[in-house]
Design the sequence.
């Protein structure tokens, strides 16, 4: 059974994008740190790569990056870092370091004799986080019912808005059936939301009470809708926790079954049911008042409504503020209001499309991975997946998030002003046949996306000119046009922790950078005035050492590569590289400067060491492995110190060999 240094669990309310983006970020961060990791994902299709008891027992620490319940009790006894899923995307390195920090507290068990069915989860997280994750657990289980039901009901309207009414001339039997099935699915929204809020707090016993309380909120007495469902869920969970305290004197060994099957359900359903029956009337008044207020804004102040909805949807990209707007839209959909959701959907679709506009307008300001992500966001945005914008927002939140808000607000305002209706709660452009003015709606969304995209491009250009493009070491080295599959760089050699000399020697057995480096290709004490002079020196040196045939051509390739994104790293190191037809084989040059020169670097420090790669125009891809091994060497503090201290070509050659 494989053992892992770190285990993790990720999950989000929709289970579509955040979940897997956090997984990827944590895996890449662990790989860079030379650690093994296994990530369990809680998506809409269920739990993928579940952690086994043996894997949990063999791990050093746990990272939970989730907005929903992931059953943290099983990690009792291990150091646990528990954060929202967005943090797993933004700062995976920090989370892993924090989890491995000896000062990180270990998760305490729920209690003696606790079982999954009878005890509430103790996740080690704060009360605020617990309230939020419980709500998101309910939302994540509710969404498939809402989407399935909403789309089927919307399709039924293709036969006419009254096609399900037998007394109307638009009546169609098949449309009526679709409407009935979709309505049944939508009707489960309230009880499912309530049940899974309670389940996150008090496991299976909470689930039972939550379903009953949710059904009462849905249609018992005076149904209180989704606000009542939220109250019912929390109330159900708290009632179970209270009963667990009340009956703690009954030994678990003899009475566990009695408590779980009889006492908790019977007493709990009676208590919560009575409370909800009494609370339904005031909750219905509150719910109806909120919906009436929003409906009134649609007609009297669509601009104000659009600004509010747009700002909410682009504030946290699928987080609690975004979900508040989305839940309101779904609740209004269930009441037959298709206007509100149109603005919500427009505001959610615009941000990821804006990232594609931004990287297209200002390619030089974005790294290669960011450009790829921007283009992929065309697909994500078109299908109503807002989360694709998160990496761009996280890069410069104080500037980028307001830029997203402006575009989303414009898209929502234009949608409300023109009275566009969207009868389905999800799907993006897939549901265009169901929209009353589809082309106009798409136009408004694109206008909002372009506005945000222009602002993002300007902000990124300003940041790049000041700090340089923040690409990763390996990515920056490999951004040469025509490079082979970048995945090779991760598969070529194993990662290893700092200061591990035995693994360092193992790495250098294959694709040793020293294989393409000779003492003649190393020069120290070179005096140049700026970056371009340094690149010109490298190009001339390549020709002088018979590694290339045309110094001007190689220099042009160096400069073109820098235009794509700076090859300045950090700690005084730059890794310029050129690929040209006049280069015969992969080679390596090292030049140490007498005086550091200005270069766009991660840490803003000047450069005094250039490690350059010369790459043939038609290359087998081997240079990727040399680049990869060199990049990995530069992650070792000891190696970098020795590199900076080396003064002669012989010292530098021995260091790389």
Sequence:
């Amino acid at each position: 059974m494989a053992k892992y240094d770190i285990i993790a669990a990720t999950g989000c309310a929709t289970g579509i994008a955040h979940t897997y983006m956090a997984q990827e970020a944590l895996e890449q961060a662990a790989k860079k740190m030379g650690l093994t990791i296994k990530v369990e994902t809680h998506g809409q299709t269920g739990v993928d790569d579940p952690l086994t008891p043996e894997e949990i027992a063999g791990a050093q620490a746990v990272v939970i990056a989730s907005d929903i319940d992931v059953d943290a009790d099983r990690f009792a006894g291990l150091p646990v870092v528990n954060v929202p899923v967005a943090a797993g995307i933004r700062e995976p390195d920090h989370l892993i370091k924090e989890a491995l920090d000896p000062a990180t507290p270990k998760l305490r068990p729920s209690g003696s004799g606790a079982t999954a069915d009878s005890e509430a989860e103790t996740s080690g997280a704060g009360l605020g986080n617990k309230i939020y994750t419980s709500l998101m657990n309910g939302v994540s289980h509710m969404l498939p019912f809402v989407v399935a039901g909403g789309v089927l009901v919307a399709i039924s309207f293709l036969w006419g808005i009254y096609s399900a009414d037998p007394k109307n001339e638009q009546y169609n039997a098949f449309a009526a059936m679709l409407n009935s099935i979709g309505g049944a699915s939508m009707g489960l929204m309230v009880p499912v939301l309530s049940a899974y809020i309670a389940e996150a707090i008090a496991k299976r016993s909470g689930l039972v009470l939550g379903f009953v309380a949710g059904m009462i909120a849905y249609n018992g007495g005076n149904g209180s809708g989704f606000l009542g469902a939220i109250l019912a869920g929390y109330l159900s969970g708290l009632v179970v926790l209270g009963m667990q305290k009340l009956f703690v004197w009954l030994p678990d060994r003899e009475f566990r079954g009695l408590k779980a099957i009889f006492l908790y359900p019977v007493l709990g359903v009676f208590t919560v049911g009575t409370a909800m029956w009494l609370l339904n009337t005031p909750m219905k008044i509150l719910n109806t008042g909120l919906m009436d207020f929003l409906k009134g804004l649609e007609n009297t102040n669509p601009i104000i409504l659009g600004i509010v909805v747009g700002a909410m949807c682009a504030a946290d990209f699928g987080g609690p503020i975004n979900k508040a707007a989305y839940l309101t839209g779904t609740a209004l959909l269930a009441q037959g209001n298709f206007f509100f959701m149109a603005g919500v959907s427009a505001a959610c679709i615009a941000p990821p499309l804006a990232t594609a506009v931004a990287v297209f307008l200002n390619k030089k300001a974005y790294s290669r991975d960011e450009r790829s992500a921007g283009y992929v966001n065309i697909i994500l945005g078109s299908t109503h997946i807002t989360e694709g914008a998160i990496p761009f927002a996280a890069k410069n939140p104080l500037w980028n998030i307001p830029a997203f808000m402006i575009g989303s607000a414009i898209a929502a305002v234009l949608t409300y002003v023109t009275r566009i209706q969207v009868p389905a709660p999800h799907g993006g452009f897939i549901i265009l046949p169901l929209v009353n003015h589809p082309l106009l709606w798409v136009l408004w969304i694109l206008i909002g996306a372009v506005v945000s995209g222009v602002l993002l491009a300007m902000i990124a250009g300003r940041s790049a000119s000041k700090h340089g493009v923040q690409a990763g070491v390996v990515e920056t080295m490999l951004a040469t046009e025509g490079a082979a599959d970048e995945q090779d760089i991760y598969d070529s050699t194993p990662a290893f922790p700092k200061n591990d000399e035995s693994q360092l020697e193992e790495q250098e057995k294959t694709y040793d950078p020293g294989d393409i480096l000779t003492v003649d290709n190393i020069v120290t004490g070179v005096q140049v005035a700026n970056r371009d002079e340094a690149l010109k020196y490298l190009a001339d040196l390549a020709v002088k050492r018979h590694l290339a045939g045309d110094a001007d051509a190689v220099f042009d390739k160096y400069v073109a590569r820098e235009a794509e994104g700076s090859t300045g790293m950090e700690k005084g190191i730059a890794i310029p590289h050129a690929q040209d037809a006049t280069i015969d084989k992969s080679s390596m040059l090292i030049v140490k400067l007498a005086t550091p020169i200005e270069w766009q670097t991660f840490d803003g420090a000047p450069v005094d060491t250039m490690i350059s790669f010369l790459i043939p125009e038609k290359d087998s891809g081997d240079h990727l492995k040399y680049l990869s091994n060199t990049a990995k060497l530069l992650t070792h503090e000891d190696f970098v110190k020795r590199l900076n201290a080396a003064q002669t070509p012989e010292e530098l050659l021995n260091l790389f060999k």
In short: The chain has a mean pLDDT of 79. Residues 156 and 175 are 5 Å apart (CA to CA). The chain is about 60% helix and 10% strand. The chain has four domains: 6-109, 128-299, 301-467, 476-656.
